[in-house]
Design brief:
This protein has 427 residues and is of the alpha+beta class. It has helices spanning 15-34, 48-51, 54-57, 79-88, 130-147, 159-168, 173-183, 186-200, 205-215, 221-232, 238-247, 294-297, 312-318, 342-354, 368-377, 388-393, 411-424; strands at residues 38-39, 45-47, 66-67, 72-74, 96-105, 117-126, 152-158, 257-258, 272-278, 284-290, 305-311, 332-336, 359-361, 382-386, 395-400, 406-410. It has two domains: 15-322, BirA Bifunctional Protein, domain 2, CATH 3.30.930.10; 332-424, 3-Layer(aba) Sandwich (Rossmann fold), CATH 3.40.50.800. The protein contains 17 helices and 16 strands. Helix 5 (130-147) crosses helix 11.
Length: 427
């Protein structure tokens, strides 16, 4: 078949891309562990009864990949699974700081930087002090993007403040949801577009004007907090104010900026919400916030929680992982000069592997020139040649593929040579 069918919204990865992704995920996991988050495992399938609880998560049922006649579906994020897990394992220590890195699926319309299968790197804190948990989540997420040199910015808001503000304007609960959906489109539609959406909700002109004044308000975080306090009082702004204050003690490169149009999941988040974007292109990197009602909505106890999801696939694309040159994790390729030297080459390879050195061995009956072509294609740092002379003298000839320099080394000292070299170079 010359033109094989391929599912829309999915993608293959070449070896260099998959290696880049693997190393990136390990680095993200290291950062999560650095901040004390523990790993759990949950299945990729959950019951449709759980997944369809729209009042809890705010997802459209049409987005779920369902296994017909099984009552099961592929998870569309990892937070629903976390809520179910927490309820079923009631002896977990609190606060419960968890991370999970894995795939999720949504039957969404594919577009740039959005796929039907995608990987999320989630961190969540269930329980504990809200302000402290908020700051810990935001700081940990910041360190992920800093680790990859991403020029990011953070917008932050508090849904409680918006709820209080809309109530002071006399806007009904039903219309408040529609208003939030409208102002959440500020980035895409701009002031005029959002104002048009508010007009469709049939708000009073005074209400529309005051909403536009709020979401267009400029200034420092202190000035914006003073402004919202003048409208709703101090109490509803305390969590956001204290979260921002505590974040000053974390050494993050980009302090969050208050943006009253940042809303995120309408039916999901309850107070502080935040979103990471790239500077310049303004592409979304990931987001999160507090969801203090999710666990109780699923039948568990009332307990607050906050989380963040790193959009792994989006980060890969932003980092241009397709351009990565590294193809193999192995540093060394072992080449046997003649067929009868293969067993010696295998001995050398296994000796190095037992020392933790990543090795690829010539597994084909091909001449040295073809073996070198293979080594060059995969860009090994070193090639180890073994032939009759090396086997007889229990040595190996090592070529530095960058400089072309060759060194004959005793077999007993070979692992020390590569251990030293592995520390000296950056793989």
């Amino acid at each position: 078949m010359a033109d094989l069918p391929f599912p829309k919204g999915f993608r293959d990865m070449m070896p260099n891309e998959a290696l880049f992704r693997s190393k990136m995920l390990r680095k993200i996991e290291d950062i999560f562990q650095l901040y004390g988050f523990v790993s759990i495992y949950t299945p990729k399938l959950e019951s449709m009864q759980l997944l369809r609880a729209k009042e809890s998560i705010g997802e459209e049922n049409k987005l779920i990949f369902e296994l017909k006649n099984e009552g099961l579906g592929l998870r569309y994020d990892q937070t629903v699974s976390l809520a179910r897990y927490f309820i079923m394992h009631s002896n977990l220590p609190l606060p419960f700081k968890r991370y999970s890195i894995g795939e999720a699926w949504r039957m969404d319309e594919p577009q740039r930087l959005r796929y039907r299968e995608f990987t999320q790197a989630d961190i969540d804190i269930i329980g504990g002090d809200a302000v402290k948990a908020n700051a810990e989540i935001i700081a940990t997420a910041s360190k992920v993007y800093e680790a990859f040199g991403v020029d990011y910015k953070i917008s932050i808001n508090d849904r409680k403040m918006l709820d209080e503000f809309f109530s002071t304007l006399g806007i009904s609960k039903e219309k408040q949801v529609k208003v939030m959906r409208a102002i959440d489109k500020m980035d895409k539609l701009g002031t005029a577009g959002v104002k048009g959406l508010l007009k469709e909700i049939e708000l009073k002109e005074e209400q529309t004007n005051k909403i536009m004044d709020l979401i267009s308000h400029e200034g420092t975080n202190s000035e914006k907090l003073s402004y919202i306090k003048s409208l709703i009082g101090d109490e509803s702004a305390l969590e956001l104010e204290n979260t921002l204050s505590l974040l000053e003690s974390y050494n993050i490169k980009s302090a969050p900026a208050i943006d009253f149009s940042t809303v995120r999941g309408i039916d999901y988040y309850t107070s502080v919400v935040f979103e990471f974007k790239t500077n310049g292109e303004n592409a979304s990197l990931g987001g999160g916030g507090r969801y203090d009602n999710l666990i109780s909505n699923y039948g568990g106890k009332q307990i607050g929680a906050v989380g963040f999801a790193v959009g792994v696939d989006r980060l890969l694309d932003i980092l241009k992982f397709q351009e990565s040159k590294e193809v193999t994790p192995a540093m060394v390729f072992v080449s046997n000069i003649k067929k009868e030297n293969y067993n010696y080459a295998l001995k050398v390879s296994n000796m190095l592997r037992e020392s933790g050195i990543k090795v690829d061995l010539n597994d084909s009956d091909r001449n040295v020139a073809n073996q070198l072509s293979y080594a060059n294609a995969l860009m090994f740092k070193y090639v180890v040649f073994v032939g009759p002379t090396e086997e007889q003298s229990m040595t190996a000839k090592v070529r530095d593929m960058n400089t072309g320099a060759e060194t004959t080394i005793e077999l007993s000292k070979l692992k020390d040579f590569f251990t030293f070299s592995d520390k000296a170079i950056e793989r």
